[in-house]
Amino acid sequence: MKARIAALAALAGLSVAAFKSWREAEAKREAWNSAVDPVD
């Protein structure tokens, strides 16, 4: 049972980390797009 809980905790941690890095990449793309193609 502890192994299952540990696996779930690791999976949750990984998905949170993946979500954060995806959000960072999204923000970088937004900044890049606005820098390359400035909107009036």
TrEMBL record:
Q: What is this protein called?
A: Uncharacterized protein
Organism listed in the record: Kocuria marina subsp. indica
Name the lineage: Bacteria, Bacillati, Actinomycetota, Actinomycetes, Micrococcales
